[in-house]
Amino acid sequence: MVASGDFYLTRTGISDDDDFVWDKLGENRFDEKVNEFKKRLKTNIIVTEISADIFGGLKMCLDSGISLELFPDDSMEDEFWRFIVFEGKNKHFVVFE
Questions:
Q1: Residue 62's beta-bridge partner residues?
Q2: Which of 35, 46, 93, 94 could serve as 63's disulfide partner, Cβ 3.0–4.6 Å?
């Protein structure tokens, strides 16, 4: 699991918060967790299922058995997510609050 608040937390192995620079690439917990996640992905990612909830969140299942659950971080009425199939003429999936 990774969340936007992880930007402001130190990655594993950094103990001195006085020297912590949250926006330096690779230094925060967000970067650490995303890198761990990327190692689990295959080259070609296939979405097998996608669904939205009434709050603007969504769940996306991948062929690798990984599922992503996303939710909006504000209460504005706006488009939160858009997934487009680049090959073919399939419809795309939009989550709008």
A1: 47
A2: 46
The phi and psi torsions of 39 (rounded to 5 degrees) equal -65, -25
The model's pLDDT over 42-90, given as tens digits with 9 standing for 90+, comes to: 677 888 998 888 888 889 998 888 888 988 877 777 777 777 776 767 7
For residues 22 and 10, give the distance between their C-alpha atoms in angstroms, rounded to a whole number. 7
Report whether pLDDT(17) > 70. no
